[in-house]
Amino acid sequence: MTGAATVRRSRITPEREAELYRAVLDLLREVGYDALTMDAVAARTKSSKATLYRQWGGKAELVVKALRHEKPSAGDADTGSLAGDFHALVMREDDCRMEQNSALMRGLAMALHGNPDLLKAFRELIIEPETVELRRVLERAVARGEIRPDNPAQEYVLHMLIGAFAVRGVIDQRPPTRAFLTSYVDAVILPALGA
């Protein structure tokens, strides 16, 4: 045969994609972002590096898409009240998962500041979608008359939520929990919104 063989790209199944994302997050927890390599991901997942690069472009996109894949959507919470919506958001993850994710985010914090590609991917795939989803929750509350449309605290709700989640370990030396975040929503976020 004298012609070059035609290479067929196989589509990664959703199950295989979820498996790859779990492996990436496991490696990230084990070695951190800086030490995580595409070689290690390929070896752990029994994939080729070429497949990983073709599918995700690079480490930053792969890591952030893995984070996004594991994150429940905020837009699902529509209970009919702002307090109910926020409580539903808090209940999306159990305490064990929150502890794991809190540790993971602390580990990524420094890498985000030192890696423009990671920061760009994180903003595009995590922060921007979260902002849009949270805005929908707040818009529903405005439409129901629970909060004023001009309440300036609306712009800071994501900051407040991330802050509570991220610094609980620093201040209290304990991971965030459902009980803590529910209490925080009731004591800080809802009053700030005038709800």
Description:
The structure is a single chain. By secondary structure, this protein is mainly α. It has helices at residues 14-31, 38-45, 49-56, 59-70, 82-90, 95-114, 116-143, 157-172, 178-193. It is built from nine helices and no strands. Helix 1 crosses helix 4 (59-70), helix 4 runs parallel beside helix 7 (116-143) and helix 8 packs across helix 9. It is elongated, with a radius of gyration of 20 Å. The model is unreliable at 1-9 (pLDDT under 50).
Explain the layout of strands and helices.
Blueprint: H1 14-31, H2 38-45, H3 49-56, H4 59-70, H5 82-90, H6 95-114, H7 116-143, H8 157-172, H9 178-193
Helix pairs in contact: 1-2, 1-4, 4-7, 5-9, 6-7, 8-9
Distance between the termini: 74 Å
Stretches where pLDDT is under 50 for at least 5 consecutive residues are 1-9
| Residue share in β-strands | under 5%
What letter string, H or E per element, gives the SSE order?
HHHHHHHHH
Largest sheet: none
Radius of gyration: 20 Å
Structural class: mainly alpha
Number of strands: 0
The number of distinct helices, counting runs of at least 4 residues, comes to 9
Whole-number mean pLDDT: 87
Helical content (DSSP H or I, runs of 4+): 55-70%
Shape: elongated
